[in-house]
Amino acid sequence: MGDLTAALRETLDTFAPDGTPLTTSEVAEALDLGRRSTYDRLDRLVDADELRTKKVGASARVWWRNDTGDAALPDAKIADASTNGASTDAGAGAVENPPLVDVLESSPTGVAAFADDGTCATANEQFRTLFGLDGDVSLEALEAVPLTDHDGDVIGAADRPVRRVRRTNRPVVDEHVRVDTDDGHRWVSMTVQESDDGVVVTASDVTGVVERSRRLRRERDAVAAELSEFASHAVDSRLKLDEDGTVLSVDDRAAALLEPDVVELVGASTSEAFDALRGASAIVDAALESESKQTGDCRHGDRDAWFEVEAVPTTSGASVLLREVTEQVEHERELQRYVGVVDALGEPVYELDSEGRFAFVNDAITELSGYSREELLGEHVSLVIPDDAVDRIEPQISELLTEDAPDRVRSEYHVTTKRGHAVPVENRLTVLTDEAGNVRGNAGFVSDITERKERERELERYERIVETVEDGIYVLDQEDRFVVVNDAFASMAGVDGEDIIGQKASIVFDETFAERVNDRNAALSADTLESAKFEETFAPVDGDPLVVETRFTTFASKDGNTGRVGVVRDVGERVERERRIERQRARLEALNEVNAVVRDVATGAIDGSTREEIETMVCKRLAASNAYEFAWIGEMTGVDGSLAVRTAAGLDDPDRASLSGMLEGVRGRGAVSRAVRDRTAQTVQDASLLPTSDPWRALAARFGFRSAMAIPITHDGRMFGVLNVHTDRESAFADEERRLVEHIGEVVGHAIAAVERKRALASEAVLELDYRVPRAFSSLDVSESLSGTLTFDETVSTKGDEVLVYGTASPTAMESLASLVDEVPYWESVSVVDTDEAGNSKFELHAKEPPVFSMVTARGGYVDEVVTVDGNSRFVLHVPPGQDVRAITEGVSAAYPSAELVAQRQISPSQPSMARLQDRIAEDLTDRQRAALYAAYHSGFFEWPRAATGEDVAESLGVAPPTFNQHIRKAERKVFEALLGEGGEESSGWTDTE
Question: Has domain 333-453 been given CATH number 3.30.450.20?
Answer without folding.
Answer: yes
